[in-house]
Amino acid sequence: MTKEEFSKMKAELEAEYLATFKKTVANHEVFLLRLANHPIFRNDHNFRVFLEYEKELSVRGKNKKEMFGGLIKSFGQSTDELLLSATQRDVDDFFDGERTFLIDYHSHLKDSTTKADKMTKAHKNVSDSNIKISSELIQLATIDTNELEKFLTKFADALEKVRKVENRVASDEDLKLSDVLRYYMRDSNAAKNLLYRRRRCLANYETANKNLDKARAKNKDVATAEQAQDEACKKFEAMSSKAKDELKEFKTRRVADFRKHLLELTEFEIKHAKAQAQVLTTAIQSLNEDI
């Protein structure tokens, strides 16, 4: 590996590390700001410790048993959700409409995220291809010491500049489009889970009503059934109230975030397109001088 090739590789690794660092910081910032603005989580003790603790925090990851338990729980929830969808009718048109919307919205977000990742990968592949072509042209220029040497060197230099712009395009698209789509894909899935928990509370409430009717008919354990029905009713009403607030806030937040990030992405795309056009124009003029 020549000194020039080593310098290029080093610059490429530094740029990749910087892009990854920016992406990580941006994702953490969005998450922490959301927690800080939440009416309940902003007063959570663990959240305050995380923000104020000056030393390093030791966090234990999930072991195999916990991961397996989570998988079984996920399967159980999916089965229960399918059963409730088939047997439980929602009494509130607002939540019924939100559920229909979220199922469709989540599916579109998932598809868009996959396509955005493919687009970002394509830009990175173009950038990597420019590195290979540029390196080969430089090697060819060192071998061919005639009049083509200067031409090939300038051509390789132009490809290197185009590569840098293309790399920035890929980085910005990943940060401003793919990550935003992925974030709201997961957020919409969390909203679907919220509606599932509310529907489960509704099913429990209706079951408690049936149990109360049976207890009154038999005139047995009526007080216990009334208490269970009262608790189920309070839980369902509290869940419905919180869910409605969360879903309204989710709509407001996602519209504002998509507008903000898409505007920023458009500005970056225009900026990079102008930079790339300028690089190519300058390169063509410079190459024409050597012909």
SSE pattern: HHHHHH
Approximate shape: elongated
The end-to-end distance, rounded to whole angstroms, is: 31 Å
Biggest β-sheet: count, sense, barrel? none
Give the overall pLDDT as a whole number: 84
The structural class is: mainly alpha
Helix percent band: over 70%
Unreliable spans: none
What's the β-strand tally? 0
Radius of gyration: 29 Å
Gist?
With 291 residues, the chain is mainly α.
Q: Mind explaining what this structure looks like?
A:
- This protein is mainly α.
- 89% of the residues lie in helices and 0% in strands.
- It is built from six helices and no strands.
- The chain has helices at 3-37, 45-52, 64-87, 93-143, 148-218, 222-290.
- Helix 1 (3-37) runs parallel beside helix 5 (148-218), helix 4 (93-143) runs antiparallel to helix 5 and helix 5 (148-218) runs antiparallel to helix 6.
- The longest helix has 71 residues, at 148-218.
- It is elongated, with a radius of gyration of 29 Å.
- The model has no long low-confidence stretch (mean pLDDT 84).
Describe the structure using short key phrases.
mainly alpha, 6 helices, 291 residues, elongated
Write the layout of secondary structure elements.
Layout: H1 3-37, H2 45-52, H3 64-87, H4 93-143, H5 148-218, H6 222-290
Helix pairs in contact: 1-5, 4-5, 5-6
